[in-house]
Amino acid sequence: MKTAAPGFRAAFWSPYFIDGYNDAAQIATAMAAQKAAGDTDVIIEWSVHYDAKDAAYPAAKSLGFPQWNDAVPQIVAAAKKAGMHVWLGLAVAPDSVNNMSRFTNQTWLNAFTTTQEKVADDLYAKYGSSISGWYIPTEPAQVNVATSARATQFGKYLGAVSDYLHAHDGRKPVMVSPSMPTAISAGLTAQQFVSELAPLIAASHVDVLDLQDGFEMTAWTPAQEVAAFQAAKKLTDAGRMQLWAAVYTPVSDGNGAVPVSKMQPYLKALGGAGVPLTEWEFTSYMDPDATVAQGAAMTANYKAYKAYLGLK
Fold first, then answer.
1. What pLDDT digit, counting tens, does each position of 124-157 carry?
2. For the chain, which terminal residue's Cβ has fewer other Cβ atoms within 10 angstroms, N or C?
3. Per the database record, which ranges form the DUF4434 domain (predicted)?
4. Is the pTM of this model over 0.70?
């Protein structure tokens, strides 16, 4: 779908969107709206929450993750019906990723890698034929790449999981999404964080590096972000992987509402530089469903976004 300005090609979906109230209708509304705005891909953020010890699908009992909701099967089915491509996330571990006693402990990391492989086996058996790609939801933050040794270690973990996924079906690409905004609390620029990522990228073996740009979490200008992404592209090109941008889009921040007009310069700059754009998340920024939380604000965002794209 050709639009008047650079727009998103994909959006992340969180299993937390599935709240047990009118789920099928809510998913269908959001999926149809996302497709109407020109998106082609849905990225399910995770299937298992390692820290919470539960799953967003009926996981095999041997995994030890009791079912929390039906997010994965419902989203996969809706996306397939809508003709959207699905990237399926493995096990997320937000608390563990930032715990250096774990993520620099090779024994713990090996055990966690095995868990990811077992989750992948289970997901392959249940949904493998319905998905287009995989997402490793352990997002490298600045603390994980603060030293070359840490970055390399994290990269080798990603490489082990990626290699395992590729061994199942090398035609399904693997994605990871480093969190660039975490560099701010460390006093780094976007480009400094990109340079810290170099050892991780080299060892990761992923197909798509979906670098979170940090919109509304940073003071970086669109031009500064483009410069950082250009530096990152040199690294991803060397690793024969694609570079995408994950644009963080909250309905509101500490200063109030975040209108589409504030997001547009970043989309134009990054999209104009040839970087495919991903939204984090459609269902928490512009889902035009009045029945969900902040539905009115998101509907307004959706209308403004379609107007920006030149779509009716």
1. 999 999 999 999 999 999 999 999 999 999 999 9
2. C
3. 28-289
4. yes
